[in-house]
Task: structure prediction
Amino acid sequence: MKIISTRKETFHYLAALKMRGRTIGLVPTMGALHEGHLSLVRAAVRETDIAVVSIFVNPTQFGPTEDLDQYPRQEKRDLELLGAAGAHLVFMPTPEEIYPRGYRTYVEVEQLGGKLCGASRPGHFRGVTTVVNLLFHTIRPDRAYFGLKDRQQLIVLRRMVKDFGWPIEMIGMPTVREPDGLALSSRNAYLSSEERAVAPLIQRGLEAAHDAFRSGQTESAALCEIVSRILEREPRFRIDYVQLVNQESLETPMKASAGDFIAVAAFLGNTRLIDNVEL
Ligand code: AMP
Result:
């Protein structure tokens, strides 16, 4: 497994392989890898010739009061896991490599980037689209892999890919969960044992709403209420939002239809967890 930290070397290394007809798969991550990330890496290894994983804790997607400094970093372990998963190249730049002095250029997907998590985390998706666009410039993947746990992120990025005409297939991979249903997340490490014990209620709420939809309930408000009620039973939760939205527009319809999704963001202590379910 090759490890490169500069954009230039990564670009030239991969350009030579592309010339020889190799296909490239990219898995962008912020490190602190878990089985969720590794499921994306394994898919890239299976489906492309050269599986590239980027590890970069992207400062521009964190708000001023968010957890950039505390964000878990465990490079050595990450590299061991990636080696075992069969990754070919790890791109591990420094912040200065990605944003050199005087950096001023940002990518913003209007509207879609301002809803749901974008409303509570202003500038978050602008940071995500900016860095992913820079990764695409450097790596020029044929396929890029993202987790459906962060469904809005994938929707925003797909819009960016369409608008820029990037010839990249955007792949959404199912959410990997703990046995009790909690979606794996690097941020789960912040939870106290009491918080960890109640965290699976998020998925339980989403599944209860999904069951209600299957049994004929289509009122968006009623479906969201089912999720909120389950979370509100546990005083440790502070709900940021529970919203049912359309996958194209991220607008809330009065009546839910198949393909819409319910997204939740909720705090346990200072830890903000997200999850969603597609109806
Ligand atoms: P992150 O390191 O949190 O930026 O995540 C990197 C990629 O892994 C993103 O595409 C995430 O959606 C994806 N990911 C994170 N958690 C999971 C999970 N539990 N299951 C599947 N994919 C995930």
